[in-house]
Structure formats: structure tokens, C-alpha cells
């Protein structure tokens, strides 16, 4: 069978997101990021295009590596200012019926007990359309904001994350039995106390003592789990916990081995490698003719802000690019920031040498992923070829301008992919997990580690 192409929209509760400077374009509305009408209109557009979900990035902390100052990020709206993403979801869920929401939340600064309730609440209010992108952070500025001198070491953050996941699994899966809530008006009993269990946990970093989860079981219990780390330790974490894996890279040559490595790692945990859904970032720019698409792309590029692009790249890699010459080669540095972004331009493709100028050109539109430009037909050809070369399952579609680029995809590309039999003609029924993995899969099943903590299993 031909693999179905899945699409998430990739955005963030900020200005411009992955395309620094493009907020100045007359078609872009992201400067309205702090008003609900923008997000409500975007959600309606994505549902019209039958997008699987809106994947909301989030970064705690400011990009202050460039020039050892936040000034460049502030001047150019390089993901600063940035608002909390979870608060957007109820409004967008109210105007949609099928669109999923994958929201990023940094576990390094979120105590598991209140966080578990927050996600259960969203799963209830969205009727089971919530997913969590599990991240551990990479900015020292976030650690300083939380009262630490610097962030925890890269691999140590994942060790802590493993402990965190065990705690939230116990809360989501092990506290309430499925039939604990009676809603019995005649007897005046809402919940059977015998079916609600206290949770205990003690590990190096977390302790929960004789505590019940505050929310009754939500449609999915555990939200759909996304993960975005592709370093060796990140791959191990994804293989154990993730259902959907997000990765970025400029070429199929870089993405394909990452997909293969995570699938191989998943098999070591007894999971079916094919059941992990792999999404990579891509920016799509469409026109009715090739010339029209090329002109649109050239117009977009005229709005790129070089300083903003380097402020982002400095934050992603932990390298201060302010002291580099434009034609200076970018070399590998090992540090505790995110490692995949630097690998993309230093070690991922041994046949290419990147300069700082190349980094600006690459990051300026759509961040760290490829940009595909053309008519709906030619772009569909390129996407199909990308799927064959990489074995990904879907795309996290970044934008140059929003919501305009998503409107183009919904109205131009989706009909072409549907005509080719590569895109769903309608949404599947059920929760987000069921839409992604099939009817009857609202809850996580063995061998996923969350399933072993469930009590009173009835689904």
C-alpha cells in the first residue's frame, strides 16, 4: 500500500517563528500572535485542509547567545516575545472537531503533579485531541529564569526525563480505574473511592507521596507523545516513549539515517518500528505556475533578517555567531545546547561545507528544514520523492508567512495529494491517537511503558 502523507502545521505562540524577518511581509499576520482571532482563523484553515494537527513549538528562555545579549532576538522578534502555548488550545478546539494539537512543554521546569492535571484537562476539553511534545530545553537563559546557574547537561536531562515520564504515567494511568466515576444521581455518589488509587514514587529527582491524580480518566489518559531529539541519547528516549518523532534537517541524506536509527532503537525496546510516526520539517511555497512560485519565494527572501537568523542559530547550537565572518566555515563544537541543529551543518552531510552566509540563507526561511517551491503538481512530486528516500510518515510544515502559506496548502496542495491517493479524503473518527493509529487505539497499549501502570483496564 502507498503510504499516506500526514501533515502537521508547525507554529509557535510568537512572531514569525522559523522565518525571522518575515513578519514584515504584508501577507503575514503573526504579529497578531497575542490575539485569539489569529489562532481561531488558523485552526479553521487547518481543519479545512484536513491537517492531522497543529504542532506548537515552545522555548522557555530568550535567545541571548548571539553577542551574549538578548538584543538581537528582541530587535528582530526571534521567538521573543513568546507566550504560553497551552492557553490557545481550548479556543481552537471550540471551532474545530477533528484537528489535533501537539503542544510543547518543557519538563525541566514543570513539576509533574500539576502538569499531569493540566494535560488531562486539555484532553477532556478537546475530546481526546491533545498531544504532548516532550522536551528538556537547551537554553541557559531558561535555567537562569528558574533559579539555576545553567542548564543540566545534555544526556543528564534525558535521564531526568525518563524519571519524569514514569511519574506522569503513574498519575495518568495508575490512579483512577476506568469505571471509577459513577455520576449516580439517585445515590448521590459521583466517584467510587475504592477505584481511585494513591500514587507513590521516589527516585533521584522526583518524589510523590500517597497522592491521587486530580483528574478523572480523560479520553486518551496519556496524551499522544511527540519527541524531537535526534542525538544518540534523544533517539533512545524517543524509541522508548514517543509515538511521533519530529526531526529537522536540510536534506534527505541527513533525514533518512536518523529515521532508520530511531526505528532500529525502537525494536530494542520491543516496539514495532513501523508504528513510530516520523515527521520532518519542510516549508512549502506554492504558485499556480513555476514562475509565480519562484517570484513568491524571491519576494519572501527579500524580508529575511540575517541578524535574526543568526540569533536563532546561536541559540539552537550554543555558538555565538556574532564574531564570525560571513564566509567563515562553521565547524563542530560539542556543548550542552541542542545538538541536531549543529550536526545538520557540520557533520550531517560530509559532501557539503557550510559558511555563516549559508546558514543565514538556510535558516532565514523555514528554519532548519528544506524549502520546496513550485506548483501543486511539482511540489507533490517532490514530497513523494522525499517520502521514498527518507521513510518518513509526515511533514511538520513550517511557514514563511501565516496563515497565507497554510491557506495555499489547504486550497492547492491538499487537493492534488488527495487526487493521487496520498492524502486522506476525510478525517478518521475518534481521538487523536485513533486518527493516527486506527480505531480502538484511544489508549496506549503494551509494549509501551505507560500501559504497565494502568489499573482497571477496560480499554
Automatic annotation (TrEMBL):
Residues 27-390 form the Luciferase-like domain. FMN binds at residues 58, 104, 154, 158, 231. Keywords: Flavoprotein, FMN, Monooxygenase, Oxidoreductase. InterPro entries: Diverse_substr_monoxygenases, Luciferase-like_dom, Luciferase-like_sf, NTA_MOA. It comes from the Bacteria. One of its GO terms (molecular function) is oxidoreductase activity, acting on paired donors, with incorporation or reduction of molecular oxygen. Belongs to the NtaA/SnaA/DszA monooxygenase family. This is FMN-dependent monooxygenase.
